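User: Fold this one for me? It's Branched-chain amino acid ABC transporter permease.
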Amino acid sequence: MANELAGYVITGLGTGCGFALVGSGLVAIYRVTRVVNFAQGTFAVIGAMCASSLLSVLPHGIAEPLAVLAVALVGLLVGFVAIGRPGTTPQAALIVTLGLAIFAYAVVVLVWGDQPRSFAGVPGAVTVLDGRVQSHYLLVIGVTVPVFAGMALFFGHTDLGRALTACASNPYAARVIGIDVRRMGLLAFAIGGALGALAGVLLTPVQQITFDSDVTLIVNGFAAAVLGGLTRPAVTLAGGLLLGVTQALVAGYGNAAHQTEIALGLMLAVMIGRAARRPAALEEPT
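Assistant: Here's what I get for Branched-chain amino acid ABC transporter permease.
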């Protein structure tokens, strides 16, 4: 029993890292533009599909980064369409990203077909805490942790990262001091595209991807991002891990058909609990 538990937890952490990467892309875009990007799950699907095609002619280690770079350019294109026109409100841009996500279904089916795709990841299995897990899950975790650490350093300790944060905090003041808010928003969409693609590339070897896999990814990624108020990557990572582990435990010990609903129900309970505590913390002392 303990062996099974360890295996389920490690598997859930790996899956949760993928959800967190999708959520972090949402956070990167929202904190700069205040736009909720409903095409974020699409970035993961396109990234996985691109990697599967590139791997037919290129080796591992080259194909995957090229796929991530390609989708970063797709993210930039989505940004041009969504926020490129001056005066576009975040609400209007949200609708544009939703429309682009639906349009992407047709593009993906036209280019790659409607059959599930996958490709080989890290082979074999390893023993962790007496539980056997696929080695590839450790790669997912091992890549995600430094990515989030790098994001923290980028946003907190570089001039470009501070410029992006300034656009989120006060766009008017950012313009006054010479920051091109529109350009920063486009950069945020490119970063979101890269993070979404990375999630798709990492998860595809252990979970087959199809043209409509973006639904599961965006729902779980959005839930993780909302836990952090769509502004805090570290809390988004924690939310993604919570979702992944909960789903793995439900699938292992219960009914896999309801793992997503139960995990999202748990996340909803956590968010309601946080919201209920916040007003109490803001009350004036008597």
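One thing worth pointing out: The chain has one domain: 2-282.
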